Amino acid sequence: MNLTQLIKAVLDKAYSYIDLPDETAKNAAIKTRLGELSHAYRQLTKEDGIAIDYSDPVSRFAYIYKYTIGHADYIMQIIRRHEELTTLFDEDELDVACIGGGPGSDFLGVLKYMLKRDKKLALTCYLFDRERSWGDSWSGVAKVLKPDFPIYPVFQQLDVTDRSTWSAYNDYLNSRLFTLSYFMSEVYKFRDTAEPYFAETFDRLTPGTKVLFVDNRDQAGRFVGWFDELAAAHNLEILVGRNENMSFSNDEEKTDLGEFFKKFDWPKRTSDLVYRIAQKQ
Prior knowledge:
Blueprint: H1 3-16, H2 23-42, H3 57-81, H4 83-86, E1 93-99, H5 105-116, E2 122-129, H6 135-138, H7 141-145, E3 151-157, E4 177-181, H8 191-204, E5 210-216, H9 222-233, E6 236-247, H10 259-264, E7 270-280
């Protein structure tokens, strides 16, 4: 099973959760939301930009459909390219903490790398997100995929702007890899209240822990600039930094999206992105 086939199974379930009278109404709502999401992401650098609400199942379906395949594939490609990350998969087990990882792209990108390179280790992914309902999307991945190695997706609710939701979590801080996939851009407008989370988390990381930051490349460099400032202030060394126009791999077939491709056309296939691989010193 490839990534698109797995996401198709997730989309089938997400589609069934949309409480509208019939398929015509569901499809119309999804098409409208796809356009709204594209508009909202173009406004991320603006202080008066639209706050994106994923509590609506239409929004979650639209996001998974349009963005998750590509974003997960970018994660896979970045891991595959860099020994700083591939060596993490040479052990018997790996814990990964995906901050803002509710949409699943971090988790699925790591999983795709393992499947493509036949890395059979016990994978625990802590998926942290403010929106509780994302947990429904990824809890059954192991049942659908049936891999010959153990997968433990652990969803926990966390709002980086609200200390009361994250101050009690401890176990995930021992993860060997932290991922921030298209997340810091979403909370950039709330950075005054979000920064204490990143500052305290980066301070508490175990030396040697890797942090993978992937995000939109805005012309002013605000998102990556924020990450770089935090890294410098909290003893994270930038090992790799790239700006790139990336496309998802040609091993993903549009036909694997079934009827959804006929209704909603292509997911997002290319992105102008920036990424960093950092290590706690």
